[in-house]
Every structure is written in structure tokens, then in C-alpha cells.
Q: What sequence folds into this?
């Protein structure tokens, strides 16, 4: 039976940071949506009309060329150099926020301001750098994913002989999908970084166990709800991984200061 530990001051989630990060990413991703809009306008004029079946083959080739040109533009529209500074800014904000949360808990448990301890940030800069690198890859990759969505929609519509009105609706939806992907990246990546830094700083303090905490709402995964309150060794994660490991996981790890308290 897993050991249970008393609850520390509740940790605040970095939701505001994730929201601000997403807002910054939306501005950076505007060229993708502009290119989608441009594609829709050009494709409408090229799309075969129901009463013009005799020119459909030529029009299909024109649309295919347009898809290829748009894909090339989308691949170049968002550069890593423009995303990295944004990711770096919000990585640092997440780190500062997590340090404050851990300090609040440490003061309550052991009466020490951990922010003043030498070594509390050991290995954290490497985590921030990795966050920026990975996020630049994820965000710049949205252009290629949008291009794939466009190509799939056009191919399906060409095979089925769909009218332009139907195609236009699907293309408009793929713009929303791109924005949703960016939102997921922002939430998931900030949450993961928060959890990773929490793990590293606890290790820097000599904390070897943590208490799994959920946000206790109706969106918590059943398997995570079952772990709520369990004391877990950092070097022996459950099958679900540590808090924040799963996509969009909002759980967090309260440090178990038992060893430090003797």
C-alpha cells in the first residue's frame, strides 16, 4: 500500500503563462493562416465547375500545382529563429514561477527559503534550452502539417468530385485545427516544463519522493485520480509516468520532505 503524506500549500498551475505563450505564438503563426486564406482565394477560381466537366482535368492539374506552391510557402513561413526567442521567454517565466511555488512549499515544510540555496538551479538552464529547441521544432512543423491537411482535402475532393462550397468549408476548418494544435503545444509544453523543472529542483534539494496531486476536477484521467495522494519515488515512476509526462497532464508533484526532516 503506497505511503500517504500530509498536504503542503497548494501549488498554482502555470496556466497564465501557457495562455500568454499561446497568444505570442498566434501572432507568429499568422503567416500560415494568411497563406491558407490566399490558397482558398486562388483555388476557388481554379476549382472545376459542375457544368464544366470537359475542363476538369486541366483544372485539377492547376489546383495540384497550387497545392505544391502553397506547401513550399508554408514550409518557409515560420522560422525557428522567430519562435526560439518566444519559447525562451516563456521557458524562463515558467522556471521563475515554479521556483516560487517550490519555495512556498519548502518554507511551510522546513522553514527554508530554497531560492537562496546554492545549486537549486543546477541543470535547469539545460532544460530551458531544450524546451526552446523542441518548441521551435513543434511550431515550425505546423506549416508542414497544414500543407498535408490541404493536400488531403484537395485529393479527397478531387476523387469524389466535391463542389467548391464543400471544399471551402473543410479548408476553413483546417485553419481552426492549426490553431488548436498550437494551443495544445502551448499548454502541454509549459506543463511538461513545469513538471520537469520541479523534478530537477527537488532532486537538487535531495528530495527523493513526491506526493502525486491532481487538480481534482472532472477532467482528471481516472488512472491519475487513482494516484492522487500517493507518495512515489522519483526514481521509480508509475506506469503513467511522473506528473506532467502525459499529454496535457495537469497533475503536479508535491515534494516529500520526510528525508530532509529526519
A:
Amino acid at each position: 500500500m503506497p505511503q500517504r503524506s500530509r498536504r503542503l500549500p497548494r501549488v498554482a498551475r502555470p496556466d497564465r503563462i501557457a495562455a500568454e505563450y499561446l497568444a505570442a505564438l498566434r501572432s507568429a503563426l499568422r503567416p500560415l493562416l494568411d497563406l491558407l486564406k490566399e490558397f482558398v482565394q486562388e483555388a476557388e477560381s481554379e476549382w472545376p465547375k459542375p457544368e464544366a466537366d470537359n475542363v476538369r482535368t486541366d483544372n485539377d492539374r492547376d489546383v495540384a500545382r497550387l497545392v505544391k506552391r502553397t506547401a513550399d510557402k508554408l514550409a518557409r513561413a515560420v522560422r525557428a529563429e522567430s519562435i526560439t526567442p518566444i519559447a525562451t521567454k516563456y521557458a524562463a517565466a515558467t522556471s521563475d514561477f515554479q521556483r516560487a511555488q517550490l519555495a512556498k512549499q519548502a518554507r511551510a515544510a522546513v522553514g527554508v527559503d530554497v531560492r537562496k540555496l546554492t545549486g537549486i538551479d543546477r541543470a535547469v538552464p539545460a532544460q530551458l534550452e531544450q524546451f526552446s529547441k523542441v518548441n521551435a521544432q513543434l511550431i515550425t512543423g505546423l506549416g508542414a502539417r497544414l500543407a498535408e491537411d490541404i493536400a488531403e482535402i484537395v485529393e479527397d475532393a478531387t476523387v469524389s468530385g466535391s463542389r467548391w462550397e464543400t471544399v471551402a468549408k473543410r479548408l476553413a476548418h483546417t485553419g481552426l485545427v492549426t490553431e488548436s494544435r498550437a494551443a495544445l503545444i502551448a499548454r502541454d509544453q509549459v506543463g511538461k516544463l513545469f513538471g520537469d523543472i520541479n523534478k530537477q529542483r527537488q532532486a537538487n534539494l535531495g528530495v527523493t519522493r513526491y506526493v502525486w496531486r491532481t487538480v481534482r476536477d472532472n477532467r482528471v484521467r481516472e488512472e491519475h485520480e487513482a494516484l492522487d495522494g500517493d507518495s512515489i519515488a522519483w526514481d521509480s515512476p508509475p506506469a503513467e509516468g511522473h506528473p506532467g509526462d502525459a499529454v496535457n497532464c495537469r497533475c503536479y508533484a508535491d515534494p516529500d520532505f520526510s528525508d530532509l526532516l529526519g
Remarks:
- The two ends are 22 Å apart (CA to CA).
- Strands lie at 209-213, 231-233, 252-256.
- Residues 164-205 form the longest helix (42 residues).
- The first strand starts at residue 209 and ends at 213.
